[in-house]
Write a structure and sequence with these properties.
Layout lengths: L10 H13 L8 E5 L8 H14 L2 E6 L12 H6 L5 E4 L3 H12 L1
Parallel strand pairs: 1-2, 2-3
Helix pairs in contact: 1-2
C-alpha cells in the first residue's frame, strides 16, 4: 500500500534534482523543455518557484502540458501550478491525441 497515494507529487523537488544533474550540464541548456503534469505538487510552493526559475535560466522555452486545462472552469489554483506558471512560456492542454499533436508542432516551432 502506498502511503501518499493521491497526495500529489514532489514536482518542485524533482525539477530541482533534474537541474542539479542535467540542467547545467547541457541537457536542458538551450532546449525546449516539456513538462506534462497536472501541477498538483505536495511540496512547498517556494521550492517549485526556485526550481522553475533555475530551469528557466537554462532552457530556451518551457512548455507545461496540463491534462486538466481543458476542463470547463479549470483555473490553475493548485499551489504548485500557480508557483510554476510565472516561469512557463506556454501553458497548453494535454487531454487528447489532438492536443498532443498540437504540442508536437509547438515543440518544433
Amino acid at each position: 500500500m502506498v502511503e501518499d497515494w493521491s497526495g500529489g507529487t514532489r514536482l518542485g523537488e524533482s525539477i530541482g534534482v533534474f537541474c542539479d544533474l542535467w540542467g547545467v550540464r547541457g541537457m536542458a541548456r538551450g532546449a525546449v523543455v516539456v513538462i506534462l503534469s497536472d501541477g498538483w505538487d505536495r511540496g512547498a510552493p517556494a521550492v517549485m518557484a526556485e526550481s522553475m526559475g533555475r530551469l528557466g535560466r537554462v532552457a530556451h522555452r518551457i512548455i507545461w502540458v496540463n491534462p486538466l486545462k481543458s476542463t470547463p472552469g479549470y483555473a490553475p489554483l493548485a499551489q504548485g501550478m500557480a508557483a510554476a506558471l510565472p516561469f512557463v512560456d506556454e501553458f497548453v492542454e494535454g487531454h487528447s491525441l489532438a492536443s498532443l499533436e498540437e504540442l508536437a508542432g509547438r515543440v518544433a516551432a
